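Listing S7. Sequence submitted for prediction.
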Amino acid sequence: MNNPEDTKLVTLAQSTLARSGSVQAAALRDTTGRTYVAINVVSPSLHLDALQAVLTVALASGITGIESVVVTGSQPTDAEVIKDFTPSATVFFIASNGEIISF
């Protein structure tokens, strides 16, 4: 992860995770530079991981493309959902030990 803008996404995702007390948080940057954050949502009738939730928020805001997404907390189950929307997008998972996994 060499892009300073991706480092900002790490900060956003980690602070959202800490503030919310959730098990997972994600931060997304669209192709215009706008950022979005979300946490996982779990209820008896709905289950979204943070990656799915942040994509939903961004799409509702009218994005036309994704540059990068960072997920913290638990590992995302379906990172390909971002690639379905923008194949060139980068998706990173930051593990609790600091390891960075790229999808």
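Caption to Listing S7: primary sequence and predicted structure tokens for the chain studied. The longest strand covers residues 66-73. Residues 82 and 89 are 7 Å apart (CA to CA).
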